[in-house]
Amino acid sequence: MNTIPNTEKTVENLYFSSREDYVYKCRMDIYKNHVSGILIIKKLTEQTHRVVLTSDFGNKLIDFEISGDNFKLNYVLPDLDKKIVINFLKNDFQELLRRQYPVTETFENENSKIYLSKTDRKAYYLFFSKENGLLQQMVYTKNNREKIDFTFDAKKHIFADSLHLQHKDFKITIKLNQITETE
What is the dihedral of CA 138, 141, 147, 149, to 10 degrees? Predict the structure, then answer.
């Protein structure tokens, strides 16, 4: 990995920036608990998103609104109503839906341009493909320890076709796959 001159002041994760609904087939594994269903993410305002997870049959499992520092729980299925689960979802989605990252340093490797963004004790490494310019991976670290690895697969800068979120210090994974109209 080579350090290169810093040309960008800010980089953005635009995957959830459109006003259109983002609809995904969702699989979550939280320790030994497995949850699957349909996840819908809707941008309400420039800062706020609403996230709803329903069962495959359409029953609401969890519904919350989230922005930078705000979190409003609208509904949670009693089985999921555990402080640790709510906190993980809140933190994971705050990181996922964060849009702007001030650039501290820039690197590159064979396939990616990598932007480092540091705030307080948090650091984000954002990997943008050299081939198509799309965000492929984001690694969130805290106190110099890797916490969450987000991997994106996309064809357009505003829509991730799939997303894989992997916690490094907990047995938690979230997989999202776009649901197309033809399914």
Answer: 10
